[in-house]
């Protein structure tokens, strides 16, 4: 029943299958959620990421060490030709599952051999606009020994005195970056390459901009990808050399003094390392983007009436979960239903979205839902014209709900917010969710159902935190 991102689902006499078989969705650590839908619906496919050929866990440190010691990576040459008064190690924030706790000792050992002591090293967490990282979060991520050994920072995104202004690119993108990162003689980036709505894929230079940028720079760079001149084909899953956000970031990084080295990963589920690369940030990003595209891009299919997306393997951050839905929006026909199955951790609920704001939006009920659905278009245009800071969030909120109904099963979010989050309907009961989807499809009109002979078509993406659908995937 399941399929990979690169293999067709089988012969036409098997797919679509009559009735709706049970599908299991990853649901938190070690659990599965049984997905049962109305028998009249037709399962078109179940798209899984390609997670084969993963690196054996015990091999990781040795593999990374060999990469760094290989002259082709440029690590040895970089150390030999760079004054190493200050070194900044820049890691992604704790919502990711990059094995930084395993990579750091390998890097630190080689820095020590080059004469760099711990007192010359700054460890910087690229939080961007996410929740600041405290010591408790650092200990969970790195362990107490590494946390206490190194001087570490969570950049204060709204404190201009903590940032160096390197100038402006493209007339409207101020490059204001966290001072320990700017003033380092060598920066070592340690992150992962995952699908990203605007940058094509995350990781690489993105750890610095927007990860270590002042809010003014963060807002400006996030306008790349939502401007009228930015073509959708260059965004999610696109070529780094054509992507407008990635190219703006690359231009901004030319203003940085010193040198930068990148250690990047393509990851599966937590603990699963599919690939690790080391070297020049641009070249590492190209190689990893190609690998991520091969493993995570969904195959071409006609749009379905119902698209079901699990948020695995994201650890319960609601913002990342909604992004996973948008990553699969192209698989759903206009007027159809996008269904999110969001496992959520209480520890992650406030990472990207303020709980009080969520509750206020939830209390607005149906009037707020109508206002948001019909007002987001105007807000999107005004935010773009006036270059407002939350322009990119308004834009993607509109893209999520403008012409598709959104239903989310997330008991924790339902408990905190209630049955509505603007136009998004929240559920703590799966049967009630499927009933609501059926009502929506019935109300969509007879032309909606009659357009597809044989009933409602369904696509399922159990690990939607990894997979994605590009607009060009729709035929």
Automatic annotation (TrEMBL):
Pfam families according to UniProt? Lar_N (PF09861)
Give the GO molecular function terms: lactate racemase activity
**Coiled-coil residue spans:** none
Can you give the residue ranges of the LarA-like N-terminal domain? 56-226
Q: What is this protein called?
A: LarA-like N-terminal domain-containing protein
């Amino acid at each position: 029943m399941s399929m990979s991102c690169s293999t067709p689902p089988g012969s036409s006499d098997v797919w679509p299958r009559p009735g709706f078989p049970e599908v299991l969705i990853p649901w938190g650590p070690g659990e599965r959620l049984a997905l049962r839908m109305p028998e009249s619906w037709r399962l078109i496919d179940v798209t899984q990421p390609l997670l084969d050929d993963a690196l054996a866990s015990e091999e990781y440190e040795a593999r990374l060490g060999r990469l760094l010691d290989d002259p082709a990576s440029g690590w040895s040459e970089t150390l030999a030709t760079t004054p190493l008064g200050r070194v900044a190690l820049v890691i992604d924030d704790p919502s990711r599952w990059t094995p930084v706790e395993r990579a750091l000792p390998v890097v630190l050992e080689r820095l020590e051999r080059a004469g760099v002591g711990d007192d010359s090293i700054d460890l910087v967490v690229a939080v961007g606009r996410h929740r600041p990282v405290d010591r408790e979060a650092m200990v969970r991520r790195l362990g107490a020994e590494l946390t206490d050994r190194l001087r570490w920072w969570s950049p204060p995104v709204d404190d201009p005195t903590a940032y160096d202004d390197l100038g402006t690119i493209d007339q409207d993108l101020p490059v204001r970056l966290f001072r320990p990162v700017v003033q380092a003689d060598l920066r070592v980036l340690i992150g992962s390459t995952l699908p990203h709505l605007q940058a094509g894929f995350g990781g690489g230079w993105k750890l610095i901009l927007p990860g270590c940028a002042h809010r003014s720079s963060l807002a400006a760079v996030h306008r790349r990808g939502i401007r009228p001149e930015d073509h959708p084909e260059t965004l999610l899953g696109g070529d780094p050399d054509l992507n407008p956000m990635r190219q703006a970031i690359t231009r901004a990084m030319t203003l940085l003094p010193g040198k930068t080295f990148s250690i990047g990963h393509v990851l599966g589920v937590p603990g699963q390392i599919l690939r690790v690369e080391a070297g020049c940030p641009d070249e590492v990003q190209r190689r990893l983007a190609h690998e991520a595209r091969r493993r995570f891009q969904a195959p071409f299919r006609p749009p379905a009436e119902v698209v079901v997306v699990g948020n695995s393997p994201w650890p319960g951050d609601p913002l990342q979960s909604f992004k996973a839905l948008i990553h699969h929006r192209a698989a759903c026909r206009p007027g159809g239903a996008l269904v999110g199955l969001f496992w959520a951790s209480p520890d992650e609920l406030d990472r990207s979205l303020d709980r009080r704001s969520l509750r206020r939006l939830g209390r607005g009920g149906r009037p707020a839902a109508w206002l948001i659905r019909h007002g987001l278009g105007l807000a999107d245009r005004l935010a773009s014209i006036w270059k407002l800071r939350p322009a990119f969030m308004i834009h993607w909120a509109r893209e999520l709900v403008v012409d598709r109904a959104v239903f989310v099963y997330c008991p924790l979010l339902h408990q905190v917010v209630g049955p509505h989050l603007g136009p998004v309907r929240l559920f703590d009961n799966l049967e009630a969710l499927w009933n609501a989807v059926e009502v929506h499809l019935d109300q969509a009109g007879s032309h909606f159902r009659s357009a597809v002979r044989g009933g409602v078509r369904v696509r399922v993406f159990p690990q939607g935190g990894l997979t994605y659908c590009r607009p060009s995937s729709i035929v």
